Amino acid sequence: xxxxxxxxxTEEQVRCVAQAVAALGLTAQPIPGGQRIAIxxxxxxxxxxxxxxxxxxxxxxIIHVSKPxxxxxxxxxxxxxxxxxxxxxxxxxxxxxxxxxxxxxxxQEQILEAARQxxxxxxxxxxxxxxxxxxxxxxxxxLGAQGLEFLHVAAREVGLPAVTEVMRIEQLEMACRHxxxxxxxxxxxxxxxxxxxxxxxRFPVLLKRxxxxxxxxxxxxxxxxxxxxxxxxxxxxxxxxxxxxxTRNTLDLSVIPLVQSLSxxxxxxxPSHATGRRFLVPVMARAALVAGxxxxxxxxxxxxxxxxxxxAQSLTGEGFCRLMHxxxxxxxxxxxMASSVAGPSA
Amino acid sequence: xxxxxxxxxTEEQVRCVAQAVAALGLTAQPIPGGQRIAIxxxxxxxxxxxxxxxxxxxxxxIIHVSKPxxxxxxxxxxxxxxxxxxxxxxxxxxxxxxxxxxxxxxxQEQILEAARQxxxxxxxxxxxxxxxxxxxxxxxxxLGAQGLEFLHVAAREVGLPAVTEVMRIEQLEMACRHxxxxxxxxxxxxxxxxxxxxxxxRFPVLLKRxxxxxxxxxxxxxxxxxxxxxxxxxxxxxxxxxxxxxTRNTLDLSVIPLVQSLSxxxxxxxPSHATGRRFLVPVMARAALVAGxxxxxxxxxxxxxxxxxxxAQSLTGEGFCRLMHxxxxxxxxxxxMASSVAGPSA
Amino acid sequence: xxxxxxxxxTEEQVRCVAQAVAALGLTAQPIPGGQRIAIxxxxxxxxxxxxxxxxxxxxxxIIHVSKPxxxxxxxxxxxxxxxxxxxxxxxxxxxxxxxxxxxxxxxQEQILEAARQxxxxxxxxxxxxxxxxxxxxxxxxxLGAQGLEFLHVAAREVGLPAVTEVMRIEQLEMACRHxxxxxxxxxxxxxxxxxxxxxxxRFPVLLKRxxxxxxxxxxxxxxxxxxxxxxxxxxxxxxxxxxxxxTRNTLDLSVIPLVQSLSxxxxxxxPSHATGRRFLVPVMARAALVAGxxxxxxxxxxxxxxxxxxxAQSLTGEGFCRLMHxxxxxxxxxxxMASSVAGPSA
Amino acid sequence: xxxxxxxxxTEEQVRCVAQAVAALGLTAQPIPGGQRIAIxxxxxxxxxxxxxxxxxxxxxxIIHVSKPxxxxxxxxxxxxxxxxxxxxxxxxxxxxxxxxxxxxxxxQEQILEAARQxxxxxxxxxxxxxxxxxxxxxxxxxLGAQGLEFLHVAAREVGLPAVTEVMRIEQLEMACRHxxxxxxxxxxxxxxxxxxxxxxxRFPVLLKRxxxxxxxxxxxxxxxxxxxxxxxxxxxxxxxxxxxxxTRNTLDLSVIPLVQSLSxxxxxxxPSHATGRRFLVPVMARAALVAGxxxxxxxxxxxxxxxxxxxAQSLTGEGFCRLMHxxxxxxxxxxxMASSVAGPSA
Lengths: 346, 346, 346, 346
Known about the structure:
Four copies of one chain form a homotetramer. By secondary structure, the first copy, chain A, is of the alpha/beta class. Chain A folds into two domains: about 1-65, Phospho-2-dehydro-3-deoxyheptonate aldolase, domain 1 (Alpha-Beta Plaits); about 85-340, TIM Barrel (Alpha-Beta Barrel), CATH 3.20.20.70. Helices cover about 35% and strands about 15% of the residues of chain A. Chain A contains ten helices and 14 strands. Chain A has helices spanning about 10-25, 110-120, 145-160, 170-180, 190-200, 215-225, 255-260, 270-275, 280-290, 315-340; strands at about 1-5, 25-30, 35-40, 60-65, 85, 90, 95-100, 125, 160-165, 180-185, 205-210, 235, 265-270, 295-300. In chain A, β9, α4 (about 170-180) and β10 (about 180-185) form a beta-alpha-beta unit. In chain A, α9 (about 280-290) runs parallel beside α10. Mean pLDDT of chain A is about 90; it is low at about 305-315. Chains in contact: A-B, A-C, A-D, B-C, B-D, C-D.
């Protein structure tokens, strides 16, 4: 921690700050500058609460150097974490993992058909929502427990592991019996009690970035899970909220190499929620792969609109099949590129 | 709902869209314009899911007119809601209600001293946190159940109703036995299961705006509670997340008159979390009052830093006392102003 | 400047960084911590360009302590600046200054009528736009030079100083002959050439905060003007761009006390552009006054819509008159409050 | 334009709104819904100013359907625009164009060496800044006219066209004599006078997206240039300002396919300014290419830090050379992928 004093801070004020630092059991080291004095705080083994110092007279600014996370940081744990979902390995050194399926499970037939389509196209994990967080209470909230059953049956039928979102602690036990990976949605990224309970489970978990979560908060949320003993955490970038409303959210792909430099946890991308518009999904999925994502989560519907009118442009089973073909193509390119240039630049 | 077609949309495409609208049981009314055709959708009694229409050929944009909330809207329910917390009335027609106390309950002595200070200064409700949502897991997480006991004792001792934050469903029953109002924090504003459970309780609830929640989402979250039967909801603006980092959050005071025009629920302001800096709290509290807030939530500590060094500038009991004096002064001015000009402008 | 090294940084890496610091003519002072080493940089007299250090091996983060502004900072120049516009004094120690008038000058009659209305209501400075920045080129762009003439005539007629926006350097000379204060709009806050030229003029200037400008950037823009010799700068908060679209911008009132703590320049508020909705203007104007603003800028139209239909709620001359009455009322309250409590809290 | 009335709007209020619409020379068509009435406005040939309608009694919301741009829209001009810079073609149907060089021109030697490096690596256009927009006035502001000379000599020497940023109208003539393309920086995206003057030049121009510009504002800024007769406009995404501070800006890659669907103008990406961190540049450059960018703008320095210490990770000439190799590799992959799957998905 660095305490920056006002230009006009008095010696007495500096002395008081040093005393306050000492009262926390830490050491204050003054760093005189050309224009002002700063006070380095030494001896802390983590984040320091600055409440007793922040408003002391003469204090201009307090700068924190330690991060609120440690277990998930690559700085302390350089080796990459590989998460195992069913028989699928997700993480550095393994091919990108694609999770696909409908946003909501609507019926046994629907999820079965979706499962067959994504399996045939080459997806590795089946996704489907039984509990749906919706902005307003007057819209479809998911099939609940019955949806979990339908998902379980469909996943077993096609031989894929399954992932589904959980929203409350009471759902955990049932969900664990029906799927192979739990998802924490963006709105629950800082539902700390849910994070802690899942941390005690030692079960693979997909943690989505909150709509307005900084990278530091994102990694700190993962730290909650890992701190309880569960290191099987996959991060998921799904777009952040910005002033731009032309897309549902703003997909922040630079977070992939950034998080990979800061943390040993794998990170995947959900281009469906990020863009909110079907025609943008495949292109952003391809870009995410090239940006180094360890996987993708893509919404695939068995196209109900086909009945209404021909030619609708959507990520149908067929569209997803084409995307998977492209992703495999790109993946081979990237492998070829890496060997041809002896490692990508930077 | 309004469906805007591309400039170059064909008649066949318009026909297909109209068909898709009809398949939803609604009526499509074409509105020919100078440059393009739009299609009005009639007959819906609420928000329409546009999934089957959004990507039809020729569709440029879909504009939703209906809001995802209705029960909390002033449009449908013009009369203001008054929320009763203990013997305190909060809402239009009643004087502003001030909730004050420490962020965290640290001990029986600390909350008792805080309770006496805020009571003496004229606060109406005692606040104190027993369950604390913290960005990282390595910091103080609150005293939990014991904190609730301490709060209960302190509130009874000074004769004030109490409010405390709940973070998970299991805490509701215990919390209801110890306090008079439940608080849902910003991070849980879209914890829809928690909202629903509290909706079933018919217990006063303070709902804080999420860090990046639009007014529409804020009101929709309140709709979740009211839809279950509990209309005793007080909204709370506590700053939103923006690009500006000089203050902890950006306090959005214009949301007060805006929400009051859209909804019949009362709304209060928390200047402490919004600014994150003590010297900004009193001035923003005064501004919030003048902006029409139905109340305030202010953090007051019994000043532990006093022991460390003299003269620290903070919202101590003394500082809060001065603020309450100013707020009463302002309130009288506002009453005088209203009668002198026969209602404030606009 | 503080250079934070990686947990695993080697001694050799620390040595290289120290060398790079020395190459800039500065002194590196290592600050060993419990988990990592940090390097304080001493001897700089202002902002240091970190380009040669940022990417050295072992460097985790660079933290700047010096601000990019100095002349406008209260830290170095504690005495408040008073800006004189015609015979009006604007700044600490003087009553709030209200600038009012139409967004655009449309005709001699219109600006004359507006001038009479705002003068009669008690405004201190007449505003009116001759050069209009518009999002698209197909909308009214202002009357230009003729508008300046109209404004000049109207201001002289009613005996008020005038302020108008300038958008390009060539307009400066003509504008200075017709008005008493130049305005730099939000979109030009970082039009550095315009800032420099105005800095050479020694003419009062109103600098609006950019849509996404941090307080640091806002003050740095003012620094451009003051650095050229012109300290007659008034800052203006006019709302920032956030994710919220229910209001045109988000009015950031906490910036008033914040800027007043950081800078000696006066700061006013424009609630018209900030909210974009007339019914919100008066309430936010009152809140701005209580938040300590040194003045206000309010749009007043001689109400063309009156002809169309009765009862429209807008800031007509009459509405502005009522607002001025309220502002005077509030101002007296604030004076009374200050003397009653011996200075407002904090 | 669609005018949404309050649930409780009276017939008289609807009639008044219809009258106000008629007064604008337009036609009002009521659209009765289940819960409220809406009024479609017909007959406008572009954006309608809603000032006289917005605040009429009973009006709840006004929704604009027409965009403030038309000339740059693909809706009206489906054929892609190809911009010719020297002998380089930039746009759909041509290979991605890479602009590279130093942020600032520091000396004749520096820009010459940079020019040779980027030419040898395969860049198509040389970039270099002579006029530099800097946040504060106390930092290097560029070499100005002399810098233009140096850039001109270097570009001629290596046989590349050159691009440089202009900040004020007076610089245009001189810049046009020295370079082949003008750049408008993010801070000047809404410097409408500069846009108009460049529009009159018929000279290739690179228009960077403003820090907080929506896609609609971005395209409207381009409309200013095209409306004056100059259609040689290349758009450039360079990151937007969000709450996230871990990267300098947030690179919004989804804007590439989005803009390509809305406009016929080419769009390129600047990963250097977007990320602000060298190790992120190559990976985001590769992702941008795959997202469909028509080109890239990359900062390349002849590595002054080499002298200070070995091993610095930066986009040196060598690093850029490797990146160009990768980009060519990827480009061939994309061509192969397109032919293998008969067009990329969506």
